[in-house]
């Protein structure tokens, strides 16, 4: 009797404890989930191979030049359609744009381009590799800032935008440079998707993307904070790739999901989900994969999102996926 009571009490206590914990966790859940910052950028795994080398003409140590305070530096807004990705021209038609910032020193006449992009191309940041020898899906999803000398006027202006949006002092530039380095060391991975509850403007945002245009917005905000005045004659629109879902559920990380036998079913489900999206497929495989992907996302209304190196389940809802080219005003 005594013994049973004790057991009941323990389980009751455990239950209350767990329930309190769950309630606590849901109360503390912040939307959008904050993008995780790291102390420093880890070494890249040698499995990840870049199709194009990252930042080939940038400084090897990622240093930005020092500007004299007497200098006046012009700031340019740069935007161009993404052509080089696997689907070619298609992405230009969907207004998938790449954004960057240009600088030009009036004292030296030298100009520079600054951008933030994937180390191993967009596909590898959006979907993982399923490697037979490793149980967890394997992500080559680092992104980083690249600063290099020169502005390729033709590249930016011919099909995109090259517009001067302001001027800053050498001091402001140097302050921005310190911030860029810190931002680059602590924000290490690319996130393609923005996840929200519905298309309407006052929808809840569950997750923010972390991509080239977000870097441009952060930099503009930093420049404004340092006192710069930025303005554009035209509407400043950027590409956003949206997923629509109900409230996401936290699932766990690699070790909790793929390192525990009790989570086998979930682990298998995540594998199955990413199978249609694997890189390097033949066209026939790709056609089947599109069908498979459609079934998962639209018919089963399910998506496994990888964010902050953790998995979340998204209960998908119409219109499921959208690519929008929307205005984000200068600060
Ligand atoms: C993606 O990653 C694989 C393996 O790391 C690599 O071979 C490939 O070049 C990368 N890029 C693309 C576009 O698949
Ligand atoms: C950002 O980090 C990448 C990867 O380590 C490096 O190649 C690049 O030079 C850095 N960029 C800047 C501006 O510090
Ligand atoms: C950048 O410098 C190059 C070479 O001097 C020049 O051709 C180009 O017009 C400059 N672009 C801008 C936006 O200042
Ligand atoms: C501009 O777009 C056309 C196709 O519409 C393409 O042939 C050309 O190479 C593009 N120019 C640049 C500089 O990317
Ligand atoms: C925004 O929210 C308000 C109140 O919550 C609602 O009345 C309104 O219809 C919403 N707007 C849109 C465009 O959904
Ligand atoms: C994964 O999650 C567990 C439980 O929350 C935690 O103890 C562990 O440190 C995490 N692993 C990594 C690599 O973040
Ligand atoms: C730019 O964004 C605005 C509002 O977000 C939209 O109405 C407009 O059509 C967009 N412009 C283009 C060229 O897509």
Automatic annotation (TrEMBL):
<dbReference type="GO" id="GO:0036269">
    <property type="term" value="P:swimming behavior"/>
</dbReference>
<keyword id="KW-0325">Glycoprotein</keyword>
<comment type="similarity">
    <text>Belongs to the CLN5 family.</text>
</comment>
<dbReference type="GO" id="GO:0007040">
    <property type="term" value="P:lysosome organization"/>
</dbReference>
<keyword id="KW-0732">Signal</keyword>
<dbReference type="GO" id="GO:0008474">
    <property type="term" value="F:palmitoyl-(protein) hydrolase activity"/>
</dbReference>
<dbReference type="GO" id="GO:0005765">
    <property type="term" value="C:lysosomal membrane"/>
</dbReference>
<dbReference type="GO" id="GO:0072592">
    <property type="term" value="P:oxygen metabolic process"/>
</dbReference>
<dbReference type="GO" id="GO:0016798">
    <property type="term" value="F:hydrolase activity, acting on glycosyl bonds"/>
</dbReference>
<feature type="signal peptide">
    <location>
        <begin position="1"/>
        <end position="20"/>
    </location>
</feature>
<protein>
    <recommendedName>
        <fullName>Bis(monoacylglycero)phosphate synthase CLN5</fullName>
    </recommendedName>
</protein>
<dbReference type="GO" id="GO:0009060">
    <property type="term" value="P:aerobic respiration"/>
</dbReference>
<dbReference type="Pfam" id="PF15014">
    <property type="entry name" value="CLN5"/>
</dbReference>
<comment type="function">
    <text>Exhibits palmitoyl protein thioesterase (S-depalmitoylation) activity in vitro and most likely plays a role in protein S-depalmitoylation.</text>
</comment>
<dbReference type="InterPro" id="IPR026138">
    <property type="entry name" value="CLN5"/>
</dbReference>
<comment type="function">
    <text>Catalyzes the synthesis of bis(monoacylglycero)phosphate (BMP) via transacylation of 2 molecules of lysophosphatidylglycerol (LPG). BMP also known as lysobisphosphatidic acid plays a key role in the formation of intraluminal vesicles and in maintaining intracellular cholesterol homeostasis. Can use only LPG as the exclusive lysophospholipid acyl donor for base exchange and displays BMP synthase activity towards various LPGs (LPG 14:0, LPG 16:0, LPG 18:0, LPG 18:1) with a higher preference for longer chain lengths.</text>
</comment>
């Amino acid at each position: 009797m005594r013994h049973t009571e004790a057991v009941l009490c323990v389980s009751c206590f455990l239950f209350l404890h767990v329930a309190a914990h769950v309630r606590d966790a849901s109360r503390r859940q912040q939307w959008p989930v904050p993008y995780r910052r790291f102390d420093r950028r880890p070494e890249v795994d040698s499995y990840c191979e870049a199709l194009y080398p990252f930042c080939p003409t940038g400084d090897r140590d990622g240093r930005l030049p020092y500007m004299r305070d007497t200098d006046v530096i012009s700031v340019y807004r740069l935007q161009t359609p993404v052509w080089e990705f696997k689907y070619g021209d298609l992405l230009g038609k969907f207004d998938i744009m790449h954004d960057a910032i240009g600088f030009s020193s009036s004292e030296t006449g030298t100009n520079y381009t600054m951008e933030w992009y994937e180390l191993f191309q967009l596909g590898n940041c959006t979907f993982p590799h399923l490697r037979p020898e490793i149980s967890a899906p394997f992500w080559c999803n680092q992104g980083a800032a690249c600063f290099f000398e020169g502005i390729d006027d033709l590249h930016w202006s011919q099909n995109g935008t090259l517009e001067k949006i302001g001027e800053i002092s050498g001091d402001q530039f140097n302050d921005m440079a310190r911030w860029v380095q810190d931002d680059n060391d602590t924000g290490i991975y690319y996130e393609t998707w923005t996840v929200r509850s519905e298309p309407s403007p006052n929808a809840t945002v569950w997750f923010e993307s972390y991509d080239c245009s977000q870097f441009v917005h952060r930099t503009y905000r930093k420049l404004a904070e340092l006192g710069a005045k930025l303005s554009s004659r035209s509407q400043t629109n950027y590409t956003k790739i949206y997923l629509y879902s109900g409230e996401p559920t936290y699932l766990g990380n690699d070790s909790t999901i793929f390192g525990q036998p009790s989570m086998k079913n979930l682990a298998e489900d995540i594998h199955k989900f990413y199978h249609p999206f694997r890189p390097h497929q033949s066209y026939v495989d790709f056609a089947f994969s599109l069908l498979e992907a459609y079934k998962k996302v639209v018919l089963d209304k399910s998506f496994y999102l990888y964010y902050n190196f953790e998995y979340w389940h998204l209960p998908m809802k119409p219109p499921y996926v959208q690519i929008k080219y929307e205005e984000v005003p200068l600060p």
